[in-house]
Amino acid sequence: MALLLHEKPERTTLAILTYTDAKRIFRGNQENFIDLIRTGEERGVQVYVVTTADFKLTGDKVTGYTYHFQSKRWKKEQLPLPDVIYNRIPYRKFEQLPDVQQTIQACLRHGHISFFNPSFFNKWTLFEWLNKSKETQAFIPTTQKLTSGDELEQLLQKHPNLYLKPVRGKAGKGIMKVSRVPAKVSKTRKYQLSVQEKTRSHISRYATIPQLWAQIREMVGTKDYIMQQGITLSNYKQRPFDLRVLVQKNSKGLWSIAGVGARLAGKLSITTHVPRGGSIDEPGKLLEAGFGAVGSKRIIAKAKKAALVIAKQIEKASGSTLGEMSMDLGVDTAGQIWFFEANSKPMKFDEPQIRKKSLINLIRYSIHLSRQGTKKETQIASTAMRRAVLQKSVQKAR
Ligand SMILES: Nc1ncnc2c1ncn2[C@@H]1O[C@H](COP(=O)(O)OP(=O)(O)O)[C@@H](O)[C@H]1O
Ligand SMILES: [Mg+2]
Known about the structure:
The chain is an alpha+beta fold. It contains ten helices and 18 strands. The chain has three domains: 10-120 and 364-378, 3-Layer(aba) Sandwich (Rossmann fold), CATH 3.40.50; 131-139 and 233-344, 2-Layer Sandwich (D-amino Acid Aminotransferase, Chain A, domain 1), CATH 3.30.470; 143-229.
């Protein structure tokens, strides 16, 4: 009897959405996917990988890949439709493809499946979103689209250093820094351009804005860029650093801080990226050196609070459901927090604690979303029922 009464256990299914091409069965960081599958297994959530090519939401099954830990192999299978889809399409160039867009739109329109982080962010749009709210305005450096030498000159008169960044860039690619050269250093070569190369930056100087602008234009090509007030970052042993915050929704669907890491710039670099000579370090230790133990704690608390306010505003202004983002925050020499960018496809955090927390959060948030989904379905069903009853009674009344 007990068996008969026993209902099918409610198991959340989570699909990791990625892209496939001739290179591999699917793209993206497989180690990340496997870790998420394992974390799901430990918590009763079935996690599998689907590619935009295979993903058809019309039937009651989908073709996906499960991972078999013993044989260390992926297995292509027919799987139940997911309750939740986690978008991990790894590059913008894939996301922009028409058939990939079609899949994303189908996921967004689907009535019963929750889909989060639908797209990459753009540095200019992020600025516009955060500029809309009084609460987040204070954290954003002055930013404008990079359009002409005249406008560059005007902004350079207000700020001695400017960062030029591609709006769709990542990992320091295409980043430049423009600085006014103090008269005591050079009276003739008034402008300095630092271009981020592999692990160092290449420096050149110019006498006039048109000369500087010609060089910048050559570097920029047809890409969209922003120019941004340069922040004098707090430093440790003369190496500037910034904070990398991982913000994720928790089991209640509320934004929370999964962890805060720090990245120290390489000696010859204008950014703090590890592949560009930067290194990972403890935020507490780095901040303590400049602000003392109490100051360090206060700044970390302030950064966490800022990250939460910023994440909420980004989600609100984007009009989509977001489940996680990583954020690059700067701390200036006075201890003030600055927002540089947020990323909707956070890279793996190497700090073990943050890493672990991030996987658990994703699973818990998926469970939350699947429950919300069931609630939504019951709501839809009961509204439909009410409507039907109402219609019947109207018909009767006639
Ligand atoms: N306005 C700025 N002032 C000072 N440093 C900056 C500024 N913008 C970026 N940086 C430095 O460059 C790094 C990369 O910038 P970011 O906006 O995160 O671009 P990317 O997408 O290439 O990571 C930051 O982490 C920070 O160290
Ligand atoms: Mg960055």
